[in-house]
User: Fold this.
Amino acid sequence: MSETTILILGGTAEAVKLASHLQAPHLRVISSLAGRTLAPAKIAGEIRVGGFGGPQGLADYLKAENVKLLIDATHPFATQISDNAIFASTTVNPIAFVRLERPAWLKKPGDKWVVVDTLTQAADAIPSKARVLLALGKQHIATFSKRNSVHFVVRMIDPPEAPLDLVDFELELSKPGTVEGEASLLIAKRITHIVCRNSGGKASYAKITAARDLGIPVIMLERPRRPEIRTLPDVESVIGFVRETLNSLGT
Ligand code: NAP
Assistant:
């Protein structure tokens, strides 16, 4: 039986889980990471790290590696690589393509959400003298630089390479924790507001539960509007799609 190559565009917990479930003798499973995290999670199978050099670079890579199935399992807010994947999947023929995207969080009773569409709207929604837990990627911090009457607690996993462009802030170098851990952080830092993105999933939901329990408002950045492509919500349904695709390829 010939080997079929699958490329997973990763950087999420779902991508790690998927790579582990797809390990099989007749499959070559390559996981691709951007290389942003200093200590990424352990991933089963082959790993490549770093950008492809734009959409055409990704298309060239798919051809060069004879990829038959492309799975975009990147983060809901990582729109550039997802756009590149759409381009590459329509350029390279034949290739099967699917997006794995966890559903967004839904507001529950007790949640005090201020829903915004852009980072600028998020920055404008913070009241003066607030103490804000900023739970965003480091590339999104600059939008808040003009809010000089706000104290920011900036949560990051790895320390920033460049100084942060904020007037009044402290760094909180940690990963999202349990509801109890998040509640302790919110209380210890006297947080009055959280700014975060509607990432969905379990890993970073504890802060939302803790905020609900403590009555803390969350300024929630909605997901960007995306082109309509075949999208599945979880690893299990993508595994089903992979099986169907392999059957149709006769592998
Ligand atoms: P992005 O803005 O969509 O992508 C920027 C560029 O980074 C892409 O054009 C591509 O470079 C490269 N890239 C991104 N993901 C890649 C991957 N999986 N493999 C190879 N190259 C990749 O992405 P981002 O928001 O910076 O996120 C980077 C990575 O972190 C993604 O893999 C994502 O799943 C993960 N992540 C992102 C977030 C978030 O909040 N955005 C949160 C958690 C994890 P080239 O054009 O040169 O190919």
